[in-house]
Amino acid sequence: MLILTRKKEESIIINGNIEIIVSDIEDGKVKLGIKAPKDIDIHRKEVYITIQNENKEAANLDNVDISKFNDIFKK
Questions:
Q1: C-beta separation of 8 from 23 below 8 A
Q2: In what order do the strands lie in the sheet with 11-14?
Q3: Are 52 and 45 contacting, i.e. CB atoms less than 8 angstroms apart?
Q4: Confidence at 69, pLDDT banded by 50, 70, 90
Q5: How far apart are CA 30 and CA 8, in angstroms?
Q6: DSSP 3-71
Q7: What Å distances lie between residue 52 and 32, 35, 56, 61, CA to CA?
Q8: Could you read off the pLDDT of 4-61 as tens digits, one per residue?
Q9: Residue 12 neighbours by CB under 8 Å, 6+ apart
Q10: Of 72, 68, 6, 69, which Cα lies nearest the Cα of 33?
């Protein structure tokens, strides 16, 4: 893990196309701004973990009734 010290309005560059900017520091919290290409997904870690867990659950559905899909596609 790389640990950097940055002050308000300072930034870091990742891979030449992602910029992380310290926009504010107050009450023990840091506000970050992120400039990145639109094709790069950016999530808070807790949201990312939730998405990953839901994807795993969806992939492990054992009892899917395919006949219900047949009714949908016949219309």
A1: yes
A2: 11-14, 18-26, 29-35
A3: no
A4: confident
A5: 9
A6: -----TT-EEEETTTEEEEEEEEETTEEEEEEE--TTS----HHHHHHHHHHHHHHHT-----HHHHHH
A7: 23, 24, 6, 15
A8: 999 999 999 999 999 999 999 999 999 999 999 999 999 999 999 999 999 988 887 7
A9: 4, 6, 19, 20
A10: 6
Question: In the block, which residue shows the tokens 């893990």?
Answer: 1
Residue at token pair 């910029």: 19
